């Protein structure tokens, strides 16, 4: 488990062979690898992903092709607003991007949890993530509101981070229209 998954599968085979499921405890290591290889996400410890797979499996989705995890969405129900699922991280291996895998993981999350509201935070420069959540919102006929959430004052001065905008997608219909 050291390098990004390669594939020679044609698009149609990826679409038909992919499966979506909650993570098992043993998937934490693969989720960590996908996050690391994304070269984009804040990388947490392998322990954190394994703990997540144990305690937040109901609101987490892994995408699997040919027995290998190639993407994941981590989420949790907000303690003060449990009907809302907060998406913490989403990533798909580089070689599997552009096949609708991230969007289908979000579809699976909604179908499984029955939530009608999803939140996430995105930095202003992450166009792929913005496009993903805009597409997801559009296909579910939802409202999509963007407001500031975390700014430089919320992060340590000696470990600064980009401001994070809150994307709140509400009124999500269970069945997406494509
Ligand atoms: C963001 C990411 C998860 C998207 O995964 P993906 O499986 O390629 O996305 P999908 O194929 O499901 O695309 C969903 C929509 O987003 C659009 N999109 C995806 N990547 C895009 C890009 N780089 N530029 C513009 N639009 C993009 C797609 O065109 C699609 O829109 P459509 O339904 O209107 O056609 C992937 O690029 C990734 O892992 N990035 C690194 C990690 C990251 O930045 N995560 C988000 C922050 S937590």
TrEMBL record:
Listed pathway(s): Amine and polyamine biosynthesis; ectoine biosynthesis; L-ectoine from L-aspartate 4-semialdehyde: step 2/3
GO MF annotation terms: diaminobutyrate acetyltransferase activity
Record carries keyword Transferase: yes
Name of the protein this chain belongs to: L-2,4-diaminobutyric acid acetyltransferase
Keyword Membrane: no
Domain of life: Bacteria
Taxonomic lineage from the root: Bacteria, Bacillati, Actinomycetota, Actinomycetes, Propionibacteriales
GO annotation (BP), single: ectoine biosynthetic process
Pfam families: Acetyltransf_1 (PF00583)
Keywords associated with the record: Acyltransferase, Transferase
EC number: 2.3.1.178
Gene designation: ectA
